[in-house]
Amino acid sequence: MSLDPAIAARLKRNDAGLFSAVAQERATGAVLMVAWMDDEALARTLETRKGTYYSRSRQQYWVKGETSGHTQYVHEVRLDCDGDTVLLLVDQEGAACHTGTHTCFDADVLLVDS
Amino acid sequence: MSLDPAIAARLKRNDAGLFSAVAQERATGAVLMVAWMDDEALARTLETRKGTYYSRSRQQYWVKGETSGHTQYVHEVRLDCDGDTVLLLVDQEGAACHTGTHTCFDADVLLVDS
């Protein structure tokens, strides 16, 4: 799958050809997870509306929920002002975090509300 | 300012010693911006409750709103499951984006809702 050249031209990638993707739950506004994409992962996400990322450690694409069943239906994708982060508005099936929590930010609070 | 060693031990930094920071507006849930931090930027943010980041291009710390007046009061900070992203829940004064929009994700929609 290839990415629309007009979109590809606006992306700013790191040295590994990657940029950040933030997945946010559409219904609740919860920030679920942050992962990496390359052009191909973004193209697949836009085409299939399934949250698709690139794993640096495994050096392969992964469709969120492919093994866990905790899929993401992607409603909307936005690129930020400097072109190095996309924001995905998703419907999250089950837990977004591989640890079983709803979001990847549930377990470790560094600073409590005041 | 130095970061609590117990927190520092849980961080996973990139080759440049940096990790991602996502700023989310507490009142609306809007994802405002994504920027970089190092240990010092996080320590300053935790200590002062002012969103403080590290600029790769300028190679210096910046306190959000220091020049624009568009400050961030940080209510809460959370670390994600793999330790490479922090989520800041903030009160955003004025526009979060340097372009003048409320968030950095307002201008460029790659995929519309369906």
UniProtKB/TrEMBL annotation, chains A, B:
<keyword id="KW-0479">Metal-binding</keyword>
<comment type="function">
    <text>Catalyzes the hydrolysis of the adenine ring of phosphoribosyl-AMP.</text>
</comment>
<dbReference type="GO" id="GO:0004635">
    <property type="term" value="F:phosphoribosyl-AMP cyclohydrolase activity"/>
</dbReference>
<comment type="similarity">
    <text>Belongs to the PRA-CH family.</text>
</comment>
<dbReference type="InterPro" id="IPR026660">
    <property type="entry name" value="PRA-CH"/>
</dbReference>
<feature type="binding site">
    <location>
        <position position="81"/>
    </location>
    <ligand>
        <name>Zn(2+)</name>
    </ligand>
</feature>
<comment type="pathway">
    <text>Amino-acid biosynthesis; L-histidine biosynthesis; L-histidine from 5-phospho-alpha-D-ribose 1-diphosphate: step 3/9.</text>
</comment>
<feature type="binding site">
    <location>
        <position position="84"/>
    </location>
    <ligand>
        <name>Mg(2+)</name>
    </ligand>
</feature>
<feature type="binding site">
    <location>
        <position position="80"/>
    </location>
    <ligand>
        <name>Mg(2+)</name>
    </ligand>
</feature>
<keyword id="KW-0378">Hydrolase</keyword>
<keyword id="KW-0028">Amino-acid biosynthesis</keyword>
<comment type="subunit">
    <text>Homodimer.</text>
</comment>
<keyword id="KW-0963">Cytoplasm</keyword>
<feature type="binding site">
    <location>
        <position position="104"/>
    </location>
    <ligand>
        <name>Zn(2+)</name>
    </ligand>
</feature>
<feature type="binding site">
    <location>
        <position position="97"/>
    </location>
    <ligand>
        <name>Zn(2+)</name>
    </ligand>
</feature>
<dbReference type="InterPro" id="IPR002496">
    <property type="entry name" value="PRib_AMP_CycHydrolase_dom"/>
</dbReference>
<keyword id="KW-0460">Magnesium</keyword>
<feature type="binding site">
    <location>
        <position position="82"/>
    </location>
    <ligand>
        <name>Mg(2+)</name>
    </ligand>
</feature>
<keyword id="KW-0368">Histidine biosynthesis</keyword>
<dbReference type="InterPro" id="IPR038019">
    <property type="entry name" value="PRib_AMP_CycHydrolase_sf"/>
</dbReference>
<dbReference type="Pfam" id="PF01502">
    <property type="entry name" value="PRA-CH"/>
</dbReference>
<protein>
    <recommendedName>
        <fullName>Phosphoribosyl-AMP cyclohydrolase</fullName>
        <ecNumber>3.5.4.19</ecNumber>
    </recommendedName>
</protein>
<feature type="domain" description="Phosphoribosyl-AMP cyclohydrolase">
    <location>
        <begin position="33"/>
        <end position="105"/>
    </location>
</feature>
<keyword id="KW-0862">Zinc</keyword>
